[in-house]
């Protein structure tokens, strides 16, 4: 089915000048960028976005990193978009990410891991709504 998923290009990949290279990977996989913007998250915004990880030992470092510089947030649309985007991204830990995946090619560490992508339909819906109004999404 045609799905939408939510994606972030994290501060490390933005700093590396890799936005275009990563967008090209999405497009090559037939994922359409139907919403896109650059933002610099506040602490509150990052804490709310990652609320499910609040009790994890890496939470403070995660929020610190995600607020360390600008990111791009985007909505990707396409057949099986949620799973397809996770395949393109590769494993959370770049040391375990398969060759040819975004994290293998662009990420340095489990914290600075280049991209985020929704893991399930419910989180995709929540994450899209967290950063985008309906009027900012251009289905095509
Ligand atoms: P992301 O998909 O953005 O969701 C939560 C983030 O926490 C994850 O990517 C990683 O960058 C970061 N993180 C740091 N340590 C861990 C860990 N041990 N397990 C999972 N995620 C971690």
What do you see in this structure?
The structure is a single chain. This protein is α+β, with helices and mostly antiparallel strands. It contains seven helices and four strands. It has helices at 11-15, 19-28, 43-49, 59-66, 81-89, 102-106, 121-131, and strands spanning 2-9, 32-39, 71-79, 115-117. Bound molecules: adenosine-3',5'-cyclic-monophosphate. Residues 53, 58, 62, 92, 110-111, 113, 116 line the site of adenosine-3',5'-cyclic-monophosphate (CMP). Adenosine-3',5'-cyclic-monophosphate binds next to loops.
Reconstruct the topology from this structure:
Blueprint: E1 2-9, H1 11-15, H2 19-28, E2 32-39, H3 43-49, H4 59-66, E3 71-79, H5 81-89, H6 102-106, E4 115-117, H7 121-131
Bound molecules: adenosine-3',5'-cyclic-monophosphate.
Binding site for ATP: 10, 58, 86, 92, 103, 113
Function: Major role in the synthesis of nucleoside triphosphates other than ATP. The ATP gamma phosphate is transferred to the NDP beta phosphate via a ping-pong mechanism, using a phosphorylated active-site intermediate.
EC number: 2.7.4.6
Q: What's the helix count?
A: 7
Structural class: alpha+beta
Query: What is the averaged pLDDT score?
Result: 98
Query: Radius of gyration from the CA trace?
Result: 14 Å
User: What is the terminal-to-terminal distance?
Assistant: 15 Å
Number of separate strands: 4
Enumerate the strands of the largest sheet in spatial order, edge to edge or round the barrel.
2-3-1-4
Please bin the fraction of helical residues.
25-40%
- The H/E string reads EHHEHHEHHEH
The proportion of residues in beta strands is 15-25%
List unreliable stretches of 5+ residues: none
């Amino acid at each position: 089915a045609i799905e939408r998923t939510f994606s972030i290009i994290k501060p490390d990949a933005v700093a590396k000048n890799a936005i275009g290279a990563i967008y090209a990977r999405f497009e090559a996989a037939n994922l359409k960028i139907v919403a896109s913007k650059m933002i610099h998250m506040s602490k509150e915004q990052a804490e709310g976005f990652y609320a499910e990880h609040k009790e994890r030992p890496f939470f403070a470092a995660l929020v610190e990193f995600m607020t360390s510089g600008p990111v791009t947030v985007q909505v990707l649309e396409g057949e099986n978009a949620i799973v397809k985007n996770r395949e393109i991204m590769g494993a959370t830990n770049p040391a375990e990410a398969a060759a040819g995946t975004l994290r293998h090619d662009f990420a340095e560490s489990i914290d600075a891991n280049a991209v985020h992508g929704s893991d399930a339909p419910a989180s995709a819906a929540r994450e899209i709504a967290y950063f985008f109004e309906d009027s900012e999404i251009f289905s095509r």
